[in-house]
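Students often ask why inverse folding is considered easier than folding. One informal answer: many sequences map to the same fold, so there is more than one right answer. In these notes we will look at a single instance of the problem. The structure comes first.
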């Protein structure tokens, strides 16, 4: 043991010589200006990489291989938050163009190019970006409203969910198309994102139908055992076996999104005991991902085996925890401790500026695992994680969101009112009626299947 420590110590000494000239990002976790300036550096690195890839392929809203489409959605979501939290709106039109480009013909984030691997989780990752755009009053898109796009995602997923009554008593499948690998898996990303989107729509529109679906979704996840009695969130279940066997691997991402959704539900229900227990239990369960309060992706980080996708999870976790703290003050102190320690670690794990801003995956002080690299050199996830956890510190002071429930008073463009279907404040119309926003689910599935057949025939 001692010999090993000695060796690691020597290694990190050697590393600090090698990188000695590049200073870590300087962050004072209690100083607004310091937080904003660190976030600006990190966002700049991401956008510089995006600008370069946009020049290369001309398709807005994508990052090149090996970054999957979902991750682009998560990153643009982070840049929408960046604008809201820091007031630096210089990237708004770039980000807005990216989201609009990837909407697909039916304005529900199901672009035909992605059909070959389009999962419910991928679609909802973009849908959650759209609802954030609505909440923060992001400049209105050319055609429609941000909230309509989020509602379209909800509606298409709800129709898939309603077809699932016979299998596992509910729950979304990972993949939406029968011929894609993963169709037989009911996963916590798809179901957690659906739960969160429903809870956010409920909070934003005041429409009780969304909170009913959020509740059903959560209760299903607990009944099936995706969420344990002590609020551990497991990865997913095989639909082939009636969801009886659960894959018990735990990702911080899932803990975060369920905590954020539960926090919103506890807020909407004015602190109902069971939702307050849920949010407290989920935040307690996050301890499995903490090393002296610093977020660690335990399932793969310690072995250094996190894949490209997994290396972007901690950013989403940080975002969701920060937002949970806003809606459920009862967990705000615990979350603040986690975010401050993690942001401090993340800033120390990053260095450089401009397009060369580079980060490594591990934030824990004791840990030097992971390569240090910029977004363009393979660490988009790491730079994104750092941006999210640093800017998360700004949430407590952020401007109020645009809200339809009378509790927010955002000064944005008032986009949080839908053009079709349920109106922002009526609280009566059902989400199914928001098909009026122009989505015909059956025809979308048919179009996707057709697009896929075309892709296969190449
Ligand atoms: C990226 O391009 C946009 C629009 O062309 C520009 O406003 C922005 O400054 C560029 N950002 C970086 C970091 O290169
Ligand atoms: C789909 O691919 C085509 C051909 O590369 C491209 O022109 C188009 O912009 C892509 N659309 C999206 C939404 O990515
Ligand atoms: C599932 O079936 C039950 C009983 O037929 C029904 O009450 C329920 O509303 C259905 N659920 C969904 C999601 O369609
Ligand atoms: C808190 O989390 C720990 C371990 O993660 C677990 O053993 C314990 O049961 C949890 N407590 C509550 C009240 O959920
Ligand atoms: C919380 O309790 C209420 C009232 O008993 C119940 O209607 C609701 O289904 C419960 N929700 C959850 C998530 O357990
Ligand atoms: C609901 O959230 C707001 C902020 O969005 C917060 O001020 C309020 O205290 C929360 N209410 C409850 C019951 O947690």
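Output (designed amino acids):
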């Amino acid at each position: 043991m001692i010999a090993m420590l000695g060796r690691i110590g020597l290694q990190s000494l050697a590393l600090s010589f090698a990188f000695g000239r590049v200073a870590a990002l300087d962050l004072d976790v209690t100083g607004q200006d310091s937080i904003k300036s660190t976030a600006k550096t990190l966002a700049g690195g991401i956008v510089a990489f995006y600008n370069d890839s946009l020049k290369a392929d001309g398709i807005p809203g994508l990052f090149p291989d090996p970054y999957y489409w979902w991750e682009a959605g998560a990153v643009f979501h982070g840049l929408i938050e960046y604008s809201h939290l820091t007031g630096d709106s210089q990237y708004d039109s770039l980000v807005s163009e990216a989201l609009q480009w990837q909407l697909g013909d039916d304005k529900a984030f199901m672009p035909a190019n992605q059909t070959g691997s389009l999962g419910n989780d991928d679609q909802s990752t973009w849908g959650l970006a759209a609802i954030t755009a609505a909440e923060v009053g992001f400049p209105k898109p050319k055609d429609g409203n941000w909230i309509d796009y989020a509602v379209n995602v909800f509606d298409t997923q709800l129709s898939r969910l309603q077809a699932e009554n016979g299998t596992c008593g509910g729950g979304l499948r990972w993949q939406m198309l029968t011929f894609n690998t993963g169709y037989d898996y009911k996963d916590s990303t798809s179901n957690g994102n659906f739960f969160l989107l429903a809870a956010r729509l409920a909070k934003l529109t005041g429409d009780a139908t969304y909170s009913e679906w959020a509740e059903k979704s959560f209760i299903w996840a607990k009944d099936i055992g995706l969420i344990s009695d002590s609020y551990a969130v497991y990865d997913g279940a095989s639909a082939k076996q009636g969801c009886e066997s659960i894959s018990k691997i735990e990702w911080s991402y899932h803990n975060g999104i369920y905590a954020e959704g539960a926090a919103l539900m506890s807020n909407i229900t004015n602190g109902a005991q069971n939702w307050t227990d849920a949010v407290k239990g989920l935040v307690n369960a996050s301890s499995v991902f903490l090393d002296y309060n610093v977020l660690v992706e335990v399932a793969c980080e310690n072995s250094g085996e996190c894949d490209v996708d997994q290396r972007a999870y901690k950013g989403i976790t940080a975002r969701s925890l920060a937002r949970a703290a806003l809606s459920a003050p009862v967990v705000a102190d615990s979350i603040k401790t986690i975010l401050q320690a993690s942001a401090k670690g993340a800033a120390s794990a990053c260095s450089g500026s401009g397009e060369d801003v580079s980060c490594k995956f591990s934030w824990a002080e004791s840990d030097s695992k992971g390569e240090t690299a910029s977004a363009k050199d393979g660490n988009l996830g790491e730079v994104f994680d750092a941006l999210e956890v640093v800017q998360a510190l700004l949430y407590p002071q952020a401007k109020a969101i645009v809200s339809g429930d009378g509790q927010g008073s955002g000064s944005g463009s008032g986009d949080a009112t839908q053009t079709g279907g349920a109106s922002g404040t009526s609280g009566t119309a059902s989400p199914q009626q928001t098909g009026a926003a122009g989505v015909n689910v059956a025809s979308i599935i048919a179009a996707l299947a057709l697009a896929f057949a075309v892709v296969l025939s190449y």
